[in-house]
Description:
This protein is of the alpha+beta class. It has three domains: 9-121, Butyryl-Coa Dehydrogenase, subunit A, domain 1; 123-229, Butyryl-CoA Dehydrogenase, subunit A, domain 2, CATH 2.40.110.10; 232-379, Butyryl-CoA Dehydrogenase, subunit A, domain 3, CATH 1.20.140.10. The protein is built from eleven helices and ten strands. It has a four-stranded mixed sheet. The longest helix has 37 residues, at 231-267. Residues 8-118 form the Acyl-CoA dehydrogenase/oxidase N-terminal domain. Residues 229-378 form the Acyl-CoA dehydrogenase/oxidase C-terminal domain. This is Acyl-CoA dehydrogenase. Keywords: FAD, Flavoprotein, Oxidoreductase.
Amino acid sequence: MSNPFELSEEQRAIQEMAQGFTADVITPNAARWDEEHHFPREVMTQAGELGFGGIYVSEAGGGVGLGRLEAALAIEAMAYGCPTIAAFISIHNMVAWMVDTYGDDALKARHLPGLVAMDTLGSYCLTEPGSGSDAAALRTTARRDGDHYVLNGTKQFISGGGVNDVYLIMVRTGDDSPRGISCVLVEKGTPGLSFGAAEKKLGWNASPTAQVILEDVRIPVTNRLGAEGEGFKIAMAGLDGGRVNIGACSLGGAQRCIDEAIQYTKDRKQFGRAIADFQNTQFVLADMATDLEASRALLYLAAAKITANAPDKTRFSAMAKKLATDNGSAIVDRALQMFGGYGYLRDYPIERFWRDLRVHRILEGTNEVMRLIIGRDLLK
Length: 380
């Protein structure tokens, strides 16, 4: 009987490829990107050349056709160098998958080749200034006008806003219920599409975030994904994978900080001995490692459930996202404490990871909303 906890040869191969890419391209530059608030577009092209632009896009759609566990392994590996870049690639993959899964043949032919290659970058636009956790209350409208829609509204906190080429936007085409929401694709350069100023953030400085503003934006009806009224279902299906991916970003960042803390406590001496020799240090490291492995096991299970389309995949993706992002933040915080005052300085990577991982408990649905999803599913 095979070991269910052992990665397959194919899974190890994608993990090792992502680890190599991270070590060569991401880790050496991540601190500079953060300091300079620089978005490394060229790194996205390099990622696309390795197949990281369409990890779970079907082979028929030009992607790699792998499962969600393989995607989580790759994203976790990249987050070891920079959670911001890993999260950006995660969001892009979600967009590419949604186009592949719900777009018609013409839409896929027009956009998938560029998305998979990461020559074209995609943004996911659900959140609005007045509807964050209550996503079904979105107010952005798409009024039908013959063979076109006319779009009006504003999307908030959009990763890649103003930089990316394609925007998947959830709009209201019907009544005020979730059944009144549809999903449309808008290309950068479409008249009436504009962007707010780049947001000034605590972290994620290597990834631009801005409002996406729609003022009488006219697009063909053929830019719709799925049927009218299927937008909320599409958005939620995308979020199952997005939650696992953002959890994977927390795993990678937490693993990096544990590794940094282990090395630092071995090297740093206080009261005539290495910090690592103190029992308290060992106990804290033990708790950090245990919490990380528990999060990793649940997240990998949730990823497998999404690939298998298991009926409880939404609950498990919410559980995995909550546990991995809560534990990721706590692990990085404890690592910073081990570094003492040095952990607070930008000379060391811990403070960057502390800033970058904090937002994971908010995006792709706050962890409070994850608790709602889990509780409601248990009680239904």
